Every structure is written in C-alpha cells, then in structure tokens.
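testing teh design pipeline on a random one, pls ignore if ur not involved
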C-alpha cells in the first residue's frame, strides 16, 4: 500500500523522524514539517532500553548507536542524603544478552535526521502549523501565515501540545503533578563508570549518568512543590534554585550541582492517554498520543516502538483506516501500562518519614538475597521487541 503513498509527518522529533524512516524505506513519499529553523535537540540525555534499541537496529542505525551512545553497565538506587547504596541493578550481569545505552538527545536527533534524508524524506523547516481541520476529507493544514494545504495521510508527531491530537480529541487540560524537573549538563570524566545513579530523598530525587563516553554528565532533578511551572523544555531557571532544593543531599551531588551554569526547568503534568489515535487520513504517535512522566525513561523508547508498529501496519493493510485501527489496538494497552508505571515510580523515589528507611532496608535485603529479581519485574517492558512481532 505504501509504494508511492504521499505522507505528511508533523514534527521533526524522535517519533516524527523515526516514522518517516520506517515509511520511506517501505516506499512512501514522506515530507516532515518542522516548526524550528533547524532539526536539532539540545541539552538532555536519554536512556535507550532494549525495546528501543531493537527499533534503532531494525532501522539500520546499530553502528551509529554504538558510535554515539554509551553502553549502560548498571542502575544504582542510592540514599540521596548519605550517598549510601540501596539497590544495584546490574544490567551487564543479569541481562548480558540485552543492550542499554545512554545517548545525548541531540545525537539521536542528528542520527535519525541523517537517516531520514538518506531514505528520501523531505524535511521542511519553519513550518508552523496553527490549525488542523479533520472531517470526511483529507486533513487540511493552516500555517501561521494563513497558507492552506491538504495531506493525503497526516501523521501527528507534534509532541505534548499536539495540534493533531486536539483535532482528534478536543483539548483536555493536563493535571499538574506538583512536581518540577530541572535538567542540566556538566563536564564529565572519562573514568566515570557507565552507571545511572538515582539519589532518592524526601520529596525529591536526582538521576545522573555520563554521556558521550564520559565527556558530559547528565543531571535530571525532580522536586515536589506547589508552585506551578511551565510545561516547556525550553524554560530556564537560576542554577542557585536547583542547588538550594538539594542542599541537604550528599557532598558528591552538591559538587555536581555547583558546576551547573545553565539549567532548564519544566513542570511535570499528567496527561491521559488519548482516546482517539486516528481519524480519516490522520493518526498520532509518541507524546502526541501518550505523554508520560520521565520516571521510567521510556518516552523516546515508546516513540520508537510506535514508529515501527505504525509503519508495519500501514504496509500490511489495504487502507490507512484499517492500518491505523490495528496500530492503536497493538499499542494502546502497552503504553497505558508504561505511563502508569512511570507515575508510580515518582512516589517510590520520594518517600518520607519512617517508611523511607524501612523501604530502603527492604530493597537492600532483596538485592542481597536475590540480586536479579528486581530486574525481572521489568521483563514485560524490556523484552518486548516490536520488530519481531508478526
């Protein structure tokens, strides 16, 4: 069905670029509309787990991933105040057959954009789409300049504030979780172990890991608070505010935060998984369909999974309507479970009062008695390979 099919993808992020590659390599004529002046992503690290790695490899990007990414050895949960070890998830030991990577988001975007262009995808920049009109006709797009166009098949990969999602489902106000997150990069050290460390404290936590072979260190810090913050990756904050929020944390953490010169701040909002993922000539994926909180490191991985499944279903079915219905059916239950698991993790990291030391003790005992058991809780997540599903 895809041979010669014209497809318009709205959004040049992970989901949009990945689906454009998947479709172009199956014969579609794909155009990506990106509102920015250039395809780029700045200032953040990603964890690519085996379910996301499988898609990147299927897209022919295994060598790029090995070159640009850092293989993860372990995840360590630590007491943020004392820096004492709570639980070590040894990926190299207990999941030697699977690969986990740390990857700079900018490197992933660059990798995907190069592969998209090499596959014949046309990427148009400075395309600000202000309105999407749906009905019993091809989707109609209106730009900020008032220009009108139609798309035979429109894929909404336009993120958290998706215009396409709103056209399908109406606008729904998200729920502020009373949590905010800072993200920053500081200089790293080549000798730093490839370990993701989670420092847990009352009402707050920090995740940190090396990027680009240790040249950089990624920091994501989350605090519970009542003051509202904008849901935007581009909003900035004073590094002093970050340092004050974690002034009771261990010296090693405070030493990292003292090096922060520029920091972004965004409010964490809970969005429902979209009820409708598709309409006449239209479908959504990634954050446009199922925004998630960052506590399971699955946002980019879900976008990659979506892209592969949507491409496969469009190639397999005789009509876009049947393909998009099959795609939503294949994906909705899984992403709903992932979003719920990420929401639960936020509570687990921020325990207070007497329950906190008891919970940490339980994790220490469990890790000592059955060191691989904690990882098995995530078999459903990491063992799922959408590229192998018939």
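output:
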């Amino acid at each position: 069905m895809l041979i010669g099919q014209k497809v318009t993808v709205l959004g040049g992020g992970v989901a949009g670029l990945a689906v454009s590659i998947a479709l172009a390599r199956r014969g579609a004529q794909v155009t990506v509309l990106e509102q920015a002046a250039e395809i780029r992503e700045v200032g953040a690290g990603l964890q690519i787990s085996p379910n996301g790695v499988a898609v990147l490899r299927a897209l022919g990007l295994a060598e790029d991933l090995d070159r640009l990414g850092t293989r993860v050895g372990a995840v360590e949960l630590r007491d943020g105040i004392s820096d004492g070890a709570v639980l070590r998830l040894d990926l190299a030991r207990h999941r030697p057959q699977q690969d986990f990577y740390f990857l700079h988001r900018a490197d992933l975007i660059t990798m995907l954009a190069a592969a998209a262009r090499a596959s014949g995808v046309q990427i148009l920049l400075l395309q600000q789409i202000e309105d999407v009109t749906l009905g019993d006709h091809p989707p109609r797009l209106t730009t900020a300049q008032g220009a009108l166009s139609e798309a035979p098949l429109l894929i909404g990969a336009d993120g958290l504030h998706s215009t396409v999602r709103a056209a399908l489902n109406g606008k729904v106000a998200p729920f502020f979780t009373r949590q905010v997150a800072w993200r920053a990069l500081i200089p790293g050290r080549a000798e730093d172990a490839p370990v993701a460390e989670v420092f847990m404290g009352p009402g707050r936590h920090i995740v940190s890991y090396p990027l680009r072979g240790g040249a950089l260190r990624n920091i994501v810090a989350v605090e519970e608070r009542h003051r509202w913050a904008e849901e935007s990756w581009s909003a900035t904050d004073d590094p002093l505010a970050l340092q004050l929020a974690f002034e009771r944390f261990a010296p090693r953490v405070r030493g990292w935060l003292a090096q922060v010169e520029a920091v972004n701040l965004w409010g964490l909002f809970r969005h429902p998984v979209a009820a409708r993922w598709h309409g006449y000539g239209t479908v959504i994926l990634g954050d446009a369909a199922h925004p998630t909180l960052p506590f399971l490191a699955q946002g980019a991985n879900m976008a990659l999974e979506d892209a592969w499944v949507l491409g496969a279903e469009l190639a397999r079915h005789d009509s876009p309507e049947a393909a998009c219905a099959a795609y939503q059916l294949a994906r909705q239950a899984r992403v709903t479970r992932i979003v719920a698991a990420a929401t639960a993790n936020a509570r687990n990291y921020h325990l207070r009062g007497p329950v906190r030391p008891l919970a940490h003790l339980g994790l220490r005992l469990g890790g000592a008695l059955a060191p691989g058991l904690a990882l098995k809780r995530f078999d459903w997540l990491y063992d799922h390979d959408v590229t192998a599903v018939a």
